[in-house]
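G.,

No rush on this.
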Amino acid sequence: MAGNDLGSLLGGLLGGRGGQGDLGSSEGGNILGSLLGGLLGGAGGVAGANGGQAGSVGSNPLGGLLDMITKSGLVSQEQLDSWVGKGDNQPLSPDHVKQAVPGETLEKVAEEAGVSRDEAADRIARQLPQAVDQLTPQGQVPSGSLEDIIKDQRL
């Protein structure tokens, strides 16, 4: 599945569900979907920079996405482990998002969401930990297609 399709799927499924904080709004899913689409699908994105690492997304899409955001420098392994695990989620700062996400990708995400670059970074910092936490309620990364994972978790 192409990066933009995967980002759109995640954005649509997370954005289309009802009522749980920022992720329940179309803004939450759409901004994360745009970010993932930009990182996975853009030539200047992480997948291109890592020699096509996004190819591993096919066998375990969620695991591949988590690997990609860690290798990109967007999050540390310790942060990611806290989001996947059952304890408290370590925060992600908007400033770190601005440093780790390529400038043109963050600009595109902001433009698609109709917000400033700073607001896009703020939303990503708030919503990414929540999304990962909600997709991994058992404290581990489930296998299967991303669509099935989201449906299984009733997101």
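When you get to it, here's the other one too:
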Amino acid sequence: MTRLLIVAIVSLLALSAQAEPPAAGEGQAASAPAAEGGQAATEPMDKSVQDAIAVMQTYMTQVSTLGMDGTSVYDISNLPEPKAKIKDALLVLVDVTEDEKTRSDYQTGIMLLAFFQPDVGATPISLEEMGPGDKTWRQVVEKEIQSQ
């Protein structure tokens, strides 16, 4: 059941990565200059959302390419950006997205980061195998998900 859920989530997130960025009403600044003060006041938010979208799209493409199915843990080196940067980007998108389904997809993307761990190596390892500190990889992943 968990495996099927992970496959479905990865598929949905991959589709979200290909979707259009959030609309102006979803946290991005409108492209027209403001009546007073010009557009400069809105550019930092606009740029941060654009950067977050780019990070999310790269991350979800990689997740899709790996074919994650919820039964294995992957080396952190498989991530296209540092884990913290990906999490921060997804949190930006959670904050600016009004659609609950899309917001939920971004939150799931944050949880999927737990399946990327250091010292796994080039080949994914089953969650049932022993990981660091006399714990299974499943325990390591579950602990990280709970701490998010």
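The chain has a mean pLDDT of 79. Helices lie at 2-18, 43-66, 83-96, 100-112, 137-147.

Enjoy the weekend,
O.
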